[in-house]
Amino acid sequence: MRSVYIKTYGCQMNERDSEAVAAQLVADGYSIAPSELVADVVLLNTCSVRDNAEQKAIGKMQNLAAEVRKARPNLVLGFMGCMAQSRGKELLDDLPQVDLVVGTQKFHRTGEYLNDIFSGKRSRIAEVAEESGSEATIKEHLSDAAGPSFSAFVSIMQGCNQYCTFCIVPYTRGAERSRSIDDIVDECRTLAGRGVKEITLLGQIVTSYGKREIGVKSGHSPFVQLLDAIHDIDGIQRIRFTSPHPKGYGDDLAEAYARLPKLCASAHIPVQTGSNRLLKLMHRGYTRERFLSIIQKLREVKPDIGVTTDIIVGFPGESEMDFEETLSLVREAQFDNAFIFKYSQRRDTPAAAMSGQLAEEVKEKRLDQLLQEINRIGAIKYERFIGKQVRILVEGPSRRNPARLTGRTECNKIVVFEGAPRHVGELMDVKITRAGSFTLYGDPAILGVD
Questions:
Q1: pLDDT of residue 149
Q2: Is-contact 123 167, C-beta < 8 A?
Q3: Cα 42 to the center of its chain, rounded Å
Q4: How many CB atoms lie within 10 A of CB 6?
């Protein structure tokens, strides 16, 4: 039996894609290798959002070719995902050690391509063409093969039509294509039958789901219609989603937080900058005022909602005043946390050709300053949880201390606590005793749980 090892870079969409490819290969007779050192096939599922992610994947592949292939000369090496889609055959030309390049609409054909390579039918393969219906092929999960899982990602769509000037995703993932509600509900119902209690819906812009295919009904967007349908599934106790776009937060979605008990009180809404001038240059389609009104509306319907965001520093032409406007938005919005990135030029995107590209040291300085402010606000917000009782879904051992368990609150706060293995997969109450850096620590014993 041949074995495969998949290493994933980037977002949750990539994690979900890797899981589906692994499940498909297991169905084809492959086993999952515990490491790259003993695998017959090593696949790197790549990210193109920032240059650093691409360079990491290329460096890793060069290391595999130079080191691991010495001991395993028949090892098959391949790239999948966004960088594979963006660079295509160029990767085969630049890296002669690479055997396979699989684009974002060809994941479901990975086993077919590997069979061609092992049978000698084809020696090196690069497949990145568009394929109709590919959005409905990412359904497989590894629950049975990898042991019980109580939360799962469900891909509801592929592609992006937003074309933000800094972003390469529309070029690597293609145009928006949505699955049917019935298809997604069937997948979620199957997962619930396996014991999954929490579903996270995934899409490049998840709130754009079904705009062309389904349309508005009874005042509800297709995405809210989907939330309603999943909410009715027995066994599913929590629903999350990522990543939305501020333009997708209509009144119906805000009201859904109050109307649907299973919809977690958590919202990750990328703002990117607090400067209206830069928002226009980024082609984001909203103003800072509109963004802040969304946050206000969500907190009105769900006062305890956890709100996080993405922010880019150092976008071309970003002035000190633009950056100060980002700082002021962060203070006004009072985010629970934020993912901050230095602007990275991506080839063939409009922003890459803009004048006013900032020096790396300027980006670094602004990133550090913004990070300090995010940490300051986050520390205050996390301290407010001390002494409170929260309900968490217990996910398993803590990564940093396997002797402890970890889980997440509805508002997406990580909680670490002392608990028994039998608690894994349970929804349980804990009392928060202290707060660390974006982590809460609880004591279930206080509530009579041992």
A1: 81
A2: no
A3: 22
A4: 22
pLDDT score of 9: 94
Task: Report how far residue 111's alpha carbon sits from residue 187's, in angstroms, rounded to the nearest whole number.
Answer: 22
CB atoms within 10 A of CB 35: 10
Q: What is the dihedral of CA 397, 233, 302, 444, to 10 degrees?
A: -30
Q: What's the sign of the alpha-carbon dihedral 319, 324, 327, 329? A: negative
* Residue type present at position 115: N
Distance of CA 169 to the CA centre of its chain: 13
3-state class (DSSP) for residue 7: strand
Task: Name the strand (E) or helix (H) holding 17.
Answer: helix 12-27
Low-confidence residues of the chain: pLDDT under 70: 143-148, 445-450
DSSP strand pairing (389-397 vs 427-435): antiparallel
* Look-up of token digits 């999948």: 80
Rg for the chain, CA atoms, rounded: 22
Q: Take residue 270 and report the two structure tokens written for it.
A: 């990328």
Closest alpha carbon to 371 in 278, 438, 282 = 438
Three-state secondary structure string covering 44-104? EEECCCCHHHHHHHHHHHHHHHHHHHHHCCCCEEEEEHHHHHHHCHHHHHHCCCCCEEECC
Dist CA 112 CA 135 (whole Å): 18
Would you state the structure tokens that stand for residue 221, as one six-digit string?
Answer: 């967007």
Check residue 447 and give its pLDDT: 47
**Residues comprising the chain, all counted:** 450
Q: What's the rounded Cα separation, in Å, for the pair 92 and 368?
A: 38
Are 244 and 207 in contact by the 8 Å Cβ rule? The answer is yes
Listed in sequence order, the DSSP H helices in 357-444 are 360-383
Token pair 């997406």 in the structure block, residue: 412
Cα–Cα–Cα angle for 229, 230, 234, rounded to 5 degrees: 110
The predicted structure's pLDDT at residue 147: 52
Assess contact for 408 and 392: CB atoms under 8 A: yes
Distance CA 398, CA 416 (A): 7
* Cβ–Cβ < 8 Å for 223, 181: no
The amino acid occupying position 145 is A
SS3 168: coil
E strand intervals along 85-237: 100-102, 125-127, 151-155, 157-158, 177-178, 198-202
Three-class DSSP category at 304: coil
